[in-house]
Design a protein that fits this description.
The complex is a heterodimer of chains A (537) and B (45).
Chain A: H1 3-26, H2 31-36, H3 43-54, H4 57-70, H5 75-103, H6 109-116, H7 120-153, H8 157-205, H9 209-218, H10 238-254, H11 259-265, H12 271-307, H13 311-314, H14 322-330, H15 333-371, H16 378-399, H17 402-429, H18 435-455, H19 458-464, H20 466-471, H21 487-505, H22 511-517, H23 523-536
Chain B: H1 9-31, H2 39-44
Classes of the chains: A mainly alpha (537), B mainly alpha (45).
């Protein structure tokens, strides 16, 4: 690879991203524009921003590598990403969130929950969960992008981190959510084209779809421990638990309660925008993640045909290298530039949304709520919040131990889903939910998931080391399947039970408030339409 | 008999469900392309 060409490509890319950020800054004057992109975002921008935020480098390189090791059973995760993360989320949650968010005039996800349940506590507690939970996740993404720049450009790792932090901070602080979403759309387009080419090339290189799959099936005798790359893991085996529990349920369903994704529903003007975004979002997730998992699995065929080895052996056991090694060996040289750009785009699009979500949590949800200030200085407060988030992630990226870094994403997804999923779904669909019920669900979900992550869930408990420090053993119950069960499976049902039981035991919320929240939603929607028709006549 | 070169029904169903759900997204988007442009939204903008 020519370092000069790569440097030129990256300089052009950074310049374009900064220009888009500048354009967004010119168009972001009010706090509504800065916090939720003025509620008039184009469906293409919304869909790609949602997808690009959701899909980070880890999904392509990390999970692509896992597919190289374990095979195509991982496609269940992509199916759930599309079916739940796009189809269900956009149609059933997105439309209600958009209308309710507008009815309540809320500009952030914690503010949405807080106004739905008339509770300031919910706003700053949720803000705190996001602000304190997200930096680890953000630093993981930052480290991934920094390592990539270090390797590709032979740059110092610390300098790479600094360049990335400064560039992303520039367009997030100046352009707010508009800056984030415009650049996400650009980065999402690069990711989609890059990954789609990779998929088509791989199938073409291996003789076609059926031929490639058949070749992979026929080499099952080489699969370590029996089974195969086109076979689902044995029921009850540790990998089966890991696949079904962590990957499918954790990431597949966990996506529903990600604050940085939920807030995107409130950025479009009408349901029409969300209808159109379903098409683009579905294609995007399949084109990017689906491609990574299929290509990851099929690398085994290529490596066996050309080097007589399976993918894991080819990279000496480091599965993160499976996709990059395949690209270096199998694809034309020009594609390596495109792919590096794809990875950088994937990391930066996720990072920018994380910074924005943390900034709004600290500025709008925590500081402004506790100080009881209204509107004044929202943009400035959020900008300071974003700056603190950027510095925090940068420092964490420098000091975090490897064990914690490896679990950063799982930690955040686990806490977020456990804290918010039940309260968010009840806020949208169950009018009987009370303020006390919502608080009980939020606090119980957060507490139980933290407890499970620290003391029971093998990977995170071991990575954090708190359980080892306190009890002398890495996790409390070593017998399978307990260490492999995702915190979500335990914490989400508990959170639901608390939300429902406490709601039923406490006084319902005022009828006028509920009517205001649900105005234009469900049965109220048809009444409104009738009124419009009558008044129109 | 193998369909698409994948013998395991679970893996095959994952592959097919991914394609079907993507097509559902596309179909939903096309069918509802111009639906949902409500009055109340344009009033308040």
């Amino acid at each position: 690879m020519d370092l000069v060409i790569l440097t030129i490509v990256l300089v052009i890319y950074f310049s374009v991203v900064c220009c888009v950020g500048y354009l967004a800054w010119k168009r972001s004057k009010s706090s509504e524009e800065f916090l939720i992109a003025g509620r008039k975002t184009h469906p293409y921008v919304m869909a790609l921003s949602y997808g690009a935020t959701f899909i980070s480098t880890a999904a392509i390189i990390g999970f692509g590598g896992v597919a190289g090791q374990f095979g195509m059973s991982l496609l269940w995760l992509t199916f759930l990403n599309v079916f739940i993360g796009v189809l269900i989320a956009f149609i059933f949650l997105g439309k209600r969130t958009r209308r309710m968010g507008r009815n309540l005039d809320s500009l952030t996800f914690p503010e949405f929950l807080s106004r739905r349940f008339n509770s300031k506590f919910i706003q700053y507690f949720s803000g705190a969960v996001i602000f304190f939970g997200m930096p680890i996740y953000a630093s993981v993404v930052l480290i991934g992008a920094g390592r990539f720049m270090e390797t590709a450009l032979s740059l110092d790792f610390h300098l790479s981190l600094l360049i990335l932090s400064v560039v992303v901070a520039f367009y997030v602080i100046s352009g707010g959510l508009k800056g984030v979403m415009y650049t996400d759309a650009l980065q999402g387009t690069i990711m989609f084209c890059g990954m789609l080419f990779l998929l088509i090339f791989t199938y073409w290189n291996l003789g076609g779809v059926v031929e490639a799959h058949t070749a992979l099936t026929n080499m099952a005798y080489l699969f370590p421990g029996g089974g195969g790359w086109t076979t689902f893991p044995e029921l009850g085996s540790p990998f089966w638990w890991s696949l079904v529990s962590t990957i499918i349920i954790g990431v597949g369903i966990g996506v529903l309660a990600q604050p940085q994704l939920v807030v995107r529903f409130m950025t479009v003007k009408s349901d029409k925008g969300l209808n159109r975004a379903v098409l683009m979002g579905g294609l995007f997730i399949t084109g990017t993640v689906g491609s990574a998992y299929i290509v990851g699995s099929l690398t085994n065929v290529y490596f066996l045909n050309h080097f007589g080895q399976i993918a894991v052996d080819m990279v000496g056991g480091n599965i993160d290298k499976i996709i990059p090694t395949f690209i270096n060996l199998a694809l034309p040289e020009w594609f390596t530039y495109v792919f590096l750009l794809t990875l950088l785009a994937a990391a930066m699009s996720t990072l920018s949304s994380q910074y924005h979500a943390q900034g709004t949590s600290l500025g709008r949800d925590i500081y402004e709520t506790l100080k009881k200030k209204k509107e004044i200085g929202s943009i400035s407060l959020t900008r300071i919040g974003i700056l603190i988030a950027v510095v925090l992630s940068f420092v964490l990226a420098l000091v975090l131990p490897g064990g914690v870094v490896a679990q950063g994403t799982a930690l955040f997804y686990g806490i977020c889903a456990a804290a918010f999923l039940s309260v968010y779904l009840c806020a949208l669909f169950w009018k009987r939910t009370t303020r006390e019920g919502a608080i009980a669900g939020l606090v119980s979900g957060t507490t139980v998931s933290l407890f499970w992550l620290i003391f029971f869930f093998g990977k995170t408990a071991e990575g954090l080391g708190i359980c080892e420090f306190l009890t002398g053993q890495p996790y409390l119950i070593p017998a399978v399947p307990w260490p492999t069960i995702d915190p979500l499976i335990i914490a989400v049902p508990i959170s639901f039970i608390f939300t429902i039981v406490v709601s039923l035991l406490t006084k319902p919320m005022a009828k006028e408030h509920i009517e205001k929240c649900y105005e234009g939603i469900g049965s109220n929607n048809s009444k409104n339409n009738q009124k419009t028709e009558i008044s129109g006549k | 008999m193998m369909i698409l070169g994948i013998p395991d029904p679970w893996v095959l169903s994952g592959y097919l469900l991914l394609i079907i759900s993507t097509l559902l997204c596309v179909a939903y988007g096309i069918i509802n392309w111009n639906k949902g442009d409500d009055e109340s939204d344009s009033d308040s903008d």
